[in-house]
Amino acid sequence: MINAGWYTELSPMWPGQGLTLKIKEILYRAKSDFQDVCVFESESMGTVLLLDGVIQCTDRDEFSYQEMIAHIPMCSLERPAKKVLVVGGGDGGVLRELARYPYVEEIHMAEIDRMVPEVSKRFFPEVVWPANGRRIEWTYIHTYIYIHTFIHSTSSSRNSQRALPIKTPFFEALHRAVRPGGIVCTQAESLWLHLDIIKALADMCTEVFQGGSVSYATTTIPSYPSGQIGMLVCAKARSGAEGEGDGPLDPRIARQQEPGPLPALGVGELRYYSHEVHSAAFALPVFAKKALGGCLTFQ
Amino acid sequence: MINAGWYTELSPMWPGQGLTLKIKEILYRAKSDFQDVCVFESESMGTVLLLDGVIQCTDRDEFSYQEMIAHIPMCSLERPAKKVLVVGGGDGGVLRELARYPYVEEIHMAEIDRMVPEVSKRFFPEVVWPANGRRIEWTYIHTYIYIHTFIHSTSSSRNSQRALPIKTPFFEALHRAVRPGGIVCTQAESLWLHLDIIKALADMCTEVFQGGSVSYATTTIPSYPSGQIGMLVCAKARSGAEGEGDGPLDPRIARQQEPGPLPALGVGELRYYSHEVHSAAFALPVFAKKALGGCLTFQ
Fold first, then answer.
1. What is the pLDDT of residues B236-248, one digit of tens each?
2. How close is the nearest chain A Cα to the Cα of B213, in Å?
3. Lowest-pLDDT range, A24-38, A141-155, A236-250, A278-292?
4. Are B74 and B87 in the same domain?
5. Ranges of chain B whose pLDDT falls below 70
6. Theoretical Cys-Cys bridge with A226: which of A43, A99, B38, B222, CB 3.0 to 4.6 Å?
């Protein structure tokens, strides 16, 4: 809602509350084939990208979410990832973070809306697009179709009210797509606002990732409702091959090196993620641990 | 700011942004000798207490801050605390948390405004006032005067713009008041909003607590600006007495048992704090660690 120079983020997903930001200037407004796209310059959070009126990212704090959702799964893996699929990463932040890993050979991007990367490239200079000599393949279709056409998967989306229902077959397809010991990491809402959604998602993932593990990691991010967001880290059962540990993969342990900067490509030092922050992110407040205890493997 | 049934928390301390809450009903409005006091029922956060228009606590999330600011220092101590001073704890939440420790013999409360505990007792049933057979002594004077009259100390306050300037002599007085190995814990603002204030406070405390330690612990709390707040944990140098460790006290280690519920007094199980959350609270995001690195003993 925009009113007299102020924007308030209202949504049925967080009724009766919302972050209010002072607008300096509206930079862009358009309707893509899928959603309303708006970019404005705020007084306190830098440039803000709205999709259907909901904050997608801000200059000020996007690195928290982007670094955590990229590096927690990447650093938890026993064997470094060579191929990565990003579902709905049109703002480019996760792509920037993946560029830090020299051993990643292929990145596949599935994004429904061509307008999102176009707008992000234009208005978010901090989000660079470093191909870094590797293959990056974009597919502009709905995740639902992508799944059934390419790898049979899906993910939840930040704008959950617009997402397709979370259904077991989609996560089963994702589970099939990753190698043994591989990880599917999905945005998983706020402990303060959406414990019921997190529980349903975790229960379903636990069913799908049998023999593997399902855990929740948290990060702070002022521009998200409640200032906190988390991700479910779902690890596929290991194959028992040489060099693999026994039992389900514990994602609280960072196994791969912290990735560094790539100054030549405009990718600076990490600003949020470290191995210490990685492990601490799995320590949940008692109220959340109680509510989710039965459906998380490690917490 | 209250407008058309909605409240927005605006302040020069966080310019250009604020949490917006839908008001169900305004329950109380008065002017005490010191400040505007307002209580309203919100749609999403339960009962909300405002002091001079700034959120002091809400039903929904007060336990996060109250548990963390009470139990992190209490559980870090090598020798259990028998006497505790609470400065500005008029809403009663910290008193409730301290009641969990059977070995605490005396609690001293210094609160400027009689209206705050009166209003809290009336409108916040979750915040019980359990004396639990021990001595609780209230003093209703300004912290500044309390310090100079009783123990010569001060603290920062949530409404920092109304607080007296943070000055070395006040913290020197607090430092004198605690025993060797004792802890002074003060609210210390948000990493996302106030790194400059935190740095100034930590630098000053490091100067005062020489031979001891100064560290920052964080908690999530949706009703605070940015959804995150922290506390400085300042430990006085140990005396070298028997049973004490060497060097400065590391508050990341929980040494005392997690306190339990007191059902007879209406104090339930802990809802946020655990030993695991205690240690994780000191793992700071890289941007904060870099900014504060030089002035924190443990992080």
1. 999 888 778 889 9
2. 20
3. A141-155
4. yes
5. 128-134, 141-167
6. B222
Q: What is the pLDDT of residue B143?
A: 57
Contact B17 A42 (CB under 8 A): yes
B157 CB-near residues (< 8 Å, 6+ apart): B88, B143, B163, B187
- Within a domain: A228: yes
Q: How far is B163 from chain A (nearest CA, A)?
A: 23
Answer yes or no: do B271 and A277 touch at CB < 8 A.
Answer: no
Domain count, chain A: 2
Cβ of B192 under 8 Å from any chain A Cβ? Answer: yes
* A270/A199 Cα distance (integer angstroms): 31
User: Can you tell me the mean pLDDT for A123-129?
Assistant: 77
A61 touches chain B (CB under 8 A): yes
Q: Is A18 on the interface with B (CB under 8 A)?
A: yes
Q: Which residues of B fall within a CB distance of 8 Å from A270?
A: 286
Per-position DSSP letters for A188-235, written without gaps between them: ---TTT-HHHHHHHHHHHHHHTTTSEEEEEEEE-TTSGGGEEEEEEEE
Least confident residue range of A9-13, A79-83, A158-162, A277-281: A158-162
What does the block give as tokens for B64? 């996060």
Instruction: Please tell me whether residues B211 and B245 are part of one structural domain.
Output: yes
The CATH number that applies at residue B101 is: 3.40.50.150
| B265: containing domain | 62-291
β-partners of residue A41 are A25, A47
Token pair of A261, please?
């900067």
Among A39-48, A68-77, A93-102, the range scoring the smallest mean pLDDT is A93-102
Asked if residue A46 belongs to a domain, the reply is yes
Element at A74 (helix H, strand E)? helix A62-76
pLDDT of residue A134: 66
Q: How confident is the model at residue B265, as a pLDDT?
A: 79
Most confident of A94-108, A203-217, B130-144: A203-217
The token pair at B193 is 């909003």
Residue B75: strand, helix, or coil? helix
The phi and psi torsions of B154 (rounded to 5 degrees) equal: -155, 180
pTM of the model: 0.92
Task: Out of B58, B75, B99, pick the residue that ends a domain.
Answer: B58
B70 and B49 together in one domain: no
Asked if A138 and A269 sit in the same domain, the reply is: yes
Which amino acid is it at A94? V
Kindly state whether residue A31 falls inside one of the protein's structural domains. Answer: yes
In a shared domain, residues A49 and A193: no
The DSSP-derived string for B184-209 is EEEE---TTT-HHHHHHHHHHHHHHT
Q: For residues A32 and A99, state if they share a domain.
A: no
What CATH number has the domain bearing residue A13? 2.30.140.10
At residue B56, the 3 state secondary structure works out as strand
Residues of B in contact with A18 (CB under 8 A): 19-20
From B10, B35, B58, give the residue that closes a domain. B58
Query: Does A86 map to a domain?
Result: yes
Nearest to B192 among A19, A61, A193 (CB): A61
| A159 at interface of B, judged by CB pairs closer than 8 A | no
Distance from CA of B194 to the nearest CA of A (A): 13
pLDDT tens, residue by residue, A171-200: 888 899 899 999 999 999 999 999 999 999
Are B157 and B184 part of one and the same domain? yes
Q: Quick one: A232 and A84 in the same domain?
A: yes
